[in-house]
């Protein structure tokens, strides 16, 4: 029933290539099917003014889509002088999701910025950005540990995200664009590797959904995140 021919509970092919840029402390290119996102993590020995002197670290994120990441060219947001509401919402989601997997005391008073640039979009870009963003963050933290700037690993658990929804009346895992654009119910699920929930975004796009359907989607999301965490761990091993 799925346009891709996948089973209802089948993920798209996932690959994570690390150390893809020369200068960033951590970087990866994550591919989830035809959605490709470049993630880089940059370390700065400073924090935002609102936590300066607290001893706490900070993880933040920025997100953007390249002009031809989609089927027709999008105008660069920089040319309009401001980011769109969708961009701001997604980068805030990425930042708070990654912070949920960090011991900010152990991190020390420094900031790591994770930049997520969508090279090619085919649905689930925010989920790919979160999943790849954690890999870039982990690589940057490992570099700090190796340099002796951190005495312990401040990352509590991997953080990954996957989309689930109701497509053609059936619950499906990891929606691509043809499914996402036609889904009756669309959801994004962000979890830690230890199974703890960080955030769930669900909405009725064309039809309402039941509590049982939501539970089914949650089960699919846990399955998908488990597979993504396995891929993350393999990438940073």
Detailed description of the structure:
- 32% of the residues lie in helices and 29% in strands.
- The chain is globular, with a radius of gyration of 18 Å.
- The chain is of the alpha+beta class and 237 residues long.
- Helix 2 crosses helix 4 and helix 4 runs parallel beside helix 6.
- The strands form two sheets. A five-stranded mixed beta sheet has the order 1-2-3-5-4. A four-stranded antiparallel beta sheet has the order 7-6-8-9, with helices on both faces.
- The protein has one domain: GHMP Kinase, N-terminal domain (Ribosomal Protein S5, domain 2, 2-Layer Sandwich), CATH 3.30.230.
Q: Please report the distance between the alpha carbons of the first and last residues.
A: 37 Å
- Helix/strand order: EEEEHHHEHEEHEEH
Strand tally is 9
Overall mean pLDDT score? 96
Spatial extent as radius of gyration: 18 Å
Q: What helical percentage do the residues reach? A: 25-40%
Q: Note poorly predicted spans.
A: none
Shape: globular
CATH class: Alpha Beta
CATH topology: the name is Ribosomal Protein S5, domain 2
Relative strand content: 25-35%
The CATH architecture term is 2-Layer Sandwich
Strand order in the largest sheet: 1-2-3-5-4
Largest sheet, in brief, is: 5 strands, mixed
Count of separate structural domains: 1
What is the SS-derived class?
A: alpha+beta
Oligomer class: single chain
Q: Could you give me the name of the CATH homologous superfamily?
A: GHMP Kinase, N-terminal domain
GO biological process, one term: tRNA processing
InterPro entries: ExoRNase_PH_dom1 (IPR001247), ExoRNase_PH_dom2 (IPR015847), ExoRNase_PH_dom2_sf (IPR036345), PNPase/RNase_PH_dom_sf (IPR027408), Ribosomal_Su5_D2-typ_SF (IPR020568), RNase_PH (IPR050080), RNase_PH_bac-type (IPR002381), RNase_PH_CS (IPR018336)
Protein name: Ribonuclease PH
Catalytic activity: tRNA(n+1) + phosphate = tRNA(n) + a ribonucleoside 5'-diphosphate
């Amino acid at each position: 029933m799925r346009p891709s021919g996948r089973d209802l509970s089948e993920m798209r092919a996932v690959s994570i290539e690390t150390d893809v840029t020369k200068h960033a402390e951590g970087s990866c290119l994550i591919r989830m099917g035809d959605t490709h996102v470049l993630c880089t993590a940059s370390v700065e020995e400073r924090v935002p003014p609102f936590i300066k002197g607290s001893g706490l670290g900070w993880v933040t994120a920025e997100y953007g889509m390249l002009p031809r990441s989609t089927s027709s060219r999008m105008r660069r947001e920089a040319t309009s002088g401001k980011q769109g509401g969708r961009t701001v919402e997604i980068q805030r989601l990425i930042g708070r999701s990654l912070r949920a997997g960090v011991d900010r005391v152990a991190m020390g008073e420094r900031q790591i910025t994770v930049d997520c640039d969508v090279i090619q979009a085919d649905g689930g870009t925010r989920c790919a950005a979160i999943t790849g963003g954690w890999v870039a963050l982990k690589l940057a933290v490992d570099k700090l540990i190796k340099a002796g700037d951190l005495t312990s690993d401040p990352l509590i658990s991997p953080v990954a995200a996957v989309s689930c929804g109701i497509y053609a009346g059936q619950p499906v895992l990891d929606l691509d664009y043809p499914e996402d654009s036609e889904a009756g119910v669309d959801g994004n699920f962000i979890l830690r590797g230890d199974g703890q929930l960080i955030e769930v975004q669900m909405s009725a796009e064309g039809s309402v959904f039941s509590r049982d359907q939501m539970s089914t989607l949650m089960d699919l999301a846990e399955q998908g995140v488990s597979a993504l965490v396995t891929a993350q761990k393999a990438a940073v091993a």
